[in-house]
Amino acid sequence: MFWPAPVVISPPTRFALKARPFFVGLLAAQALLIACRFFILDLWGAMLMLMVVMMGSFVVSTGGGMDTTYCLYYGLMCLVTGVFDIIACVERWVHVKYPLFSKNAPLMYNVASMVYIVCPLVELASCMLAAAIYADAQETESRLMLPHYAPADVGAGRGESSQARGPGRPSRPHLDQGFVPFEGRCHQL
User: Fold this and answer.
1) What is the pLDDT of residues 135-177, one digit of tens each?
2) Three-state secondary structure readout of the chain
C-alpha cells in the first residue's frame, strides 16, 4: 500500500511535457504486453504489470501535465518488475528444451519468448524515463528555491564586496520585495 503523497501541485517542466508522448507510448506498449501476457498464460506477470500501468496512468491523468510524485512511484515499480522479468527471462532461457526462438518449437513458444524478452526492456526504459522526469522536476524545484536560501552577500562571490555596492544599496533587492519586518512598538510584560 502506498502512503498518501504530499499534495504539491507544480506545473510540469518543459522536459516533462516533451517526454509525455514517449511516456504515454511506453504505457501503451506495457498495456499491449499485458494482453500478450494473458495470451501466453503468464497471469501473475500480467497482473503485476497491470498494477504498474495503473500507477503510470496516475502520472499522466493530471489534466495534461505530469505528476512527479506518482512518476517516482511508477519508476520504482517499473524497476522492480523489470528486475523480476529479467530473472524470469533468464530462468526461461536456462530451463527450456528449445533455444529462445526455434523453428521446431510451437508458435506459442516463440511468442512467449518474445514477450519475456520485450517486457524487461520496456519496463527498464520506462524506469529510466520516469527517473529522468523526476530528476528534472527536482532540479527545477531546487533552482526555484535557491534564491531564497542564497547568502546575504550574493555579489561577493563575483568579486563585488558589500563595500563596493555602497551602504544604501541592498544586497538582495529582488528577494526582499514585498517583505516588511515588524515595525510596531514592543511591550514587555
Assistant:
1) 998 888 888 777 655 455 444 444 444 454 445 545 555 555 6
2) CCCCCCCCCCCCCHHHHHHHHHHHHHHHHHHHHHHHHHHCCCHHHHHHHHHHHHHHHHHHCCCCCCCHHHHHHHHHHHHHHHHHHHHHHHHHHHHCCCCCCCCCCCHHHHHHHHHHHHHHHHHHHHHHHHHHHHHHHHHHHHHHHHHHHCCCCHHHHHCCCHHHHCCCCCCCCCCCCCCCCCCCCCCCC
Query: Would you say the pTM of this structure is higher than 0.85?
Result: no
Q: Which three cell numbers stand for residue 143?
A: 533552482
Cβ contact 160:36 at 8 Å: no
